[in-house]
Each structure stands twice: as C-alpha cells, then as structure tokens.
Design brief:
Strand order of the largest sheet: 1-2-4-3-5-6-7-8
Number of strands: 8
Shape: globular
Strand content: 15-25%
Order of helices and strands: HHEEEHEHEHEHHHEHEHH
Radius of gyration: 18 Å
Structural class: alpha/beta
Distance between the termini: 49 Å
Length: 289
Amino acid sequence: MAQLNVTNVFMKSNEYHSFQSSVPLKQIIVDDNGVKVWRFYDTGARSNTSHPIICLPPACGTANIFYQQIVSLSSIGYRVIAIDYPVYWSAEEFCIGLRKFIDTLRLSKVHLFGCSLGSFLAMKFAEKLGNKHYVASLFLCNPFADTTLLKSPFTPYAYFALPSLVLKRFVLGDLPLQFVSITQANSLDFVVDRLESVTQKEIASRLALQYHSNYIKFPQRLQSIPVTVMDTFDDATLAQTVKDDVYKCLPLAKRAHLKTGGYFPYLSESMQVNLHLRVHLQPFDKMNS
C-alpha cells in the first residue's frame, strides 16, 4: 500500500483530538440475528422540526473522515450523523439496511451527504424511497450514477476471495499520490491510516457495491428532491464522461464547483465544503424557522 511521507496535520490537530474526546462512536444492530452492526457518530441539536444530515463515506473512507463537518455544522445547530455501514453485497440490500437504521433512530426525514460510492448509494436510496419518505435532500460529492462507467481489473464476485492487502492497494491505486498540495497529501495520508481499521469483508463488499453493474434506473424519481452536486476540478479519479452522466441524470441539480480539493475535499478544503453545505441547507432552515 502506498505510504505518504508527510506529517499528518489532521490527526495531530486540536480539532481532531477534540472530536475524538467529545464525540463517541456508537453502534446499533438493525437485524434480528445481530449481524448488521452500524457504527456511527451522532452529535448536534435534536429538533422535531429540522432534519439531520447523514454522511455516507466513499469506498475507502470511514465515518471519522467527516470529523470537520461534524465539528463545524454541529456547532451551529445541525445534527450530523456520520456512518460506517456493515457488509452489504448489493445496493438494494444496503437501502433496506439504511431504512432500518433511520427507523431505529426514529428519524422522519434526513439529508444525505454522500461521497463517491456514498453518493451513488444515497441516490439509490432516494430512487427507491423517493422524497415522500426519508429523503429531504441530497448533497453529492464527486458522484457517479452508473457503475459500468468505472473501471476495475476484477469481477465484482472476486473481491470476496482477495486478501485485505490486495483490496486496499486496489482501492487506493487510483488516488493521486504525487503532485498534490500539502493539504491534499495530508487528507490522503489520513484516509490511508483510517483504512487500516476496515476489515477484508467490509472493503470487499464496498468494492462489490462500487463495481457491480448498476445504475440509477428511474432518475425521474429524483427530480423533485433538492440536490446539490459538488465536483472538484482537480479530481482525476472520475472521467468527464462519468461527471456528464451525473449531470444528465440530475438536470435540475444545483452545482457547486471547487477549483481544488482532490478526492477528499471535505478534508482538504473543509471550510469551502462546509460553506456549500450550509448554502444547500439554508432553504430548509427558513422552512423550519
């Protein structure tokens, strides 16, 4: 696995240590046999009128990758929930699990902040359940709407048998490890370090979700849901055809473009991302005031 020779300012920052000491990692079980354990951070104001923000990580990310959103947004009154979901081998199975997770927390509707694979799963969830139930809005970072446009040297069914080290090398293989800014290098290093805690089965299932042939079959179901699509101009991991496909799928979506930020802008350019999130959520603040 690639290693970056940088001093990681994120893990050593006062903000991250404050997050670790003040926001506990919780877990709940959403099935009868006790297998599907969801781990999550949950902080911020509880309100009967405002909807919480659920953060869905990319295939190589863990829930604490969103610590800067958790700290910033919860400090101004938003409830933020960042999740590590258990092993699911299909998007449909994941959607059932997410519905059970939301029901267990007794939430009526939620905003979904999805990143890469997380954005695809957020769209699949909204496609399945629509805006009449559960989904108040979508905020999608570096999204894709059709997994067949992504490239993998393995079949989706091979991930189950591959060792953890091979899977982690593969999931990090497309990420730029050279010619990036210091903040982007630190964000990559943070993700590499956090990925060590992900099990073989967990990473295998995420890669199967990302590369198993699937797409948004009913994009018309998403058109009545408020959506913001955020892209970074310097992210080389997604081809322009992938981005164009998302715009075609979500023609009414608002667009938030970042000049820099790379694959993990919520780490490397967190202030800009948090600002775009606040702009996205502002109409709901007015509705609830």
